[in-house]
Design brief:
binds pyrrole-2-carboxylate, 428 residues, 11 helices, 6-stranded mixed beta sheet, 8-stranded mixed beta sheet, alpha+beta
Length: 428
């Protein structure tokens, strides 16, 4: 395949953010320049990325910044970060179950830790410690298993008992009288939270500064192939010729892949989440209970952010339901009875592209030039930086990086699944 050209074409240098700049603009009332500019759709791009979430924007940024490929378009049918990237609960962790998964998500954590400096954008990463509670012997066994795999991969995780849990999270009911008493937890100190929209904006700004074009409100309506090779995409704003298309559309990924004639072993399910009114900071760690189908963290503004397992039926709905709010409230109060008077402010859902083994699908497909970065299920946001970086490397070099090789689509025909269901925040 003809690989995309390498000529670096920079866009406009972004304003460098700094404390001095903030003070100076405050005093002079000078406006900030927009973080990226609008462009007309060009008739040809070296790479077209479908999906303006963290995955698509990170891939665009690394294509330009690391590989000199800046004639890139990122297309989004809505606005950037309006899909899963703006709807997740912003939890970062690498305490997975398989060695392949742990290695991969740990690399993402490393990139996230350095992201604010790399992008000159405050993404508000907060290391909080992540606790996955075990309420029965089976879960405790899985937590021990995960802890050992994590340690072998150099990731800080350990199983701790109720006393230590109580010390870390004083408001948690660790008594033997609870309906599902807490027997222990997988404690992962490096886990934390981040500001998800800042991550999206930071990547968009940095990619645009390298010359990438971001086209919002631009829906892909078709993908043209000829003799099993990508030739271009059709959109609501016009047609584009391109040799390379990257599908980074999460919940919509099967529909987009079908336009190129590619079938994916993925089904889309909504995942609901909710946020409360702000309360005084009392919860430092991120708490997960698979048995009670809930996870909770507290933002820097004091709101409690909750999520659950995916809805039990495939759907493209992004609305919240009363059943979810009722179940959530019941379970949260079982965990932390002191929260019974806190009010829920908003609820919503995002779309999860679930694979049979709960691992993603990354790499090329049977259609030359058509790449996928999909199948993220409930893990997508955590992986944005590393998958963007490695997909960019694959597109540039034509060689699959070792880190993402286990996640190729061929694993489903070769009987080598990468089972990560036991590492899900909550049971599905
Ligand atoms: O895997 O940590 C997780 C998670 C939290 C919310 C959705 N997935």
């Amino acid at each position: 395949m003809g690989r995309p050209g390498f000529g670096r074409r920079y866009g406009e240098r972004p304003v460098r953010y700094s404390a001095a700049g903030l003070v100076s603009r405050g005093l002079t009332h000078r406006d900030w320049t927009p973080m990226w500019r609008r462009h007309d759709l060009k008739p040809r791009y070296d790479v077209v990325i479908i999906g303006g979430g963290v995955h698509g924007l990170a891939a665009a940024y690394y294509l330009a910044a690391n590989h000199g490929i800046s004639n890139v378009a990122v297309l989004d049918k809505g606005y950037i970060g309006g899909g899963g990237s703006g709807r997740n609960t912003a939890i970062l962790r690498s305490n997975y179950l398989t060695p392949e998964g742990v290695r991969f998500y740990e690399r993402s954590m490393e990139l996230y830790r350095g992201l604010a400096a790399d992008l000159n954008f405050n993404v508000m990463f907060a290391r909080r410690g992540h606790l996955t509670l075990a309420h029965n012997d089976g879960s405790l066994r899985t937590m021990r298993w995960r802890a050992e795999v994590n340690k072998l991969q150099g990731v800080d995780s350990d199983v701790i008992g109720p006393d230590e849990i109580k010390r870390l999270v004083p408001y948690l009911d660790v008594s033997a009288q609870a309906r599902y008493p807490i027997l222990g937890a997988l404690y992962h100190p490096p886990g934390g939270i981040i500001r998800h929209d800042a991550v999206v904006w930071g990547y968009a700004r940095a990619a645009a500064a390298q010359g990438v074009h971001i086209h919002q409100d631009t829906e892909v309506t078709g993908i043209d192939t000829e003799g099993g090779t990508v030739r271009g995409v059709r959109t609501t704003k016009g047609d584009i010729a391109t040799p390379v298309v990257l599908n980074a559309t999460a919940g919509w990924s099967t529909l987009v892949a079908a336009m190129a004639g590619v079938r994916l072993p993925i089904q889309t399910f909504p995942l609901q989440a909710a946020v409360t009114e702000p309360v005084r900071p009392f919860l430092h760690a991120v708490i997960v209970s698979g048995t009670l189908h809930v996870y909770v963290s507290q933002t820097d503004r004091g709101e409690l952010v909750f999520g659950a397992s995916v809805d039990p039926f495939a759907s493209y709905s992004t609305r919240g339901t009363l059943e979810f709010a009722e179940g959530l409230a019941t379970h949260v109060i079982e965990l932390m009875p002191a929260l019974s008077k806190v009010r829920l402010l908003r609820q919503w859902s995002g779309l999860c592209d679930m694979t049979p083994d709960f691992s993603p699908v990354m790499g090329g497909t049977e259609v030359e030039g058509f790449y996928v970065d999909v199948g993220w299920g409930t893990y997508g946001f955590k992986a944005g930086p590393v998958s963007g970086r490695r997909m960019a490397e694959l597109i540039h070099t034509g060689k699959t990086p070792d880190l993402i090789r286990p996640f190729s689509i061929t694993r489903f025909y070769e009987n080598r699944l990468v089972g990560e269901k036991a590492a899900a925040a909550v049971s599905h």
